Amino acid sequence: MQSSVVNAADEQAVIVNIRLASGDTGNPEERKRIAALEDQLAAAIKESGAGDFDGDEFGNGFCTIYMCTAQTLTGFSQLCNQS
Predict the structure, then answer these.
(1) What strands, in cross-sheet order, belong to the sheet with 51-59?
(2) Does residue 25 register a pLDDT over 90?
(3) Of residues 16, 13, 26, 11, the one with CA closest to residue 61
(4) What's the pLDDT at 46?
């Protein structure tokens, strides 16, 4: 396993906001689908070494997913499109 140290100033936050269809925190089906998406994103990020999956937050009718990367956002976007 290879690891590298990245200066925090070199990292970029990737924040995804998903509007929920049901209530403040979504319904069970929405949460299940978002969990599946997060599993795919986390696996792709880990496999590529592109950054970190930092988790999510539900509230106010949105799910916010937090990630960070030292790659350019274009490169990170391409990674996410592959998963």
Answers:
(1) 12-19, 62-69, 51-59
(2) yes
(3) 26
(4) 87
Provide the CATH topology of domain 8-82.
TATA-Binding Protein (3.30.310)
- Residue ranges per structural domain of the chain: 8-82
Beta bridge pairs of residue 58: 63
**pLDDT, tens digit, 9 for 90 and up, residues 8-21:** 567 788 889 999 99
Token representation of residue 63: 């799910």
Amino acid identity of residue 59, one-letter, is G
| pTM greater than 0.85 (yes/no) | no
Query: Side chain identity at 30, as an amino acid letter?
Result: E
* Predicted confidence (pLDDT) per residue in 51-72, tens digit: 889 999 999 999 999 998 876 5
Contacts of 30 (CB under 8 A, 6+ apart): 20, 21, 22, 63
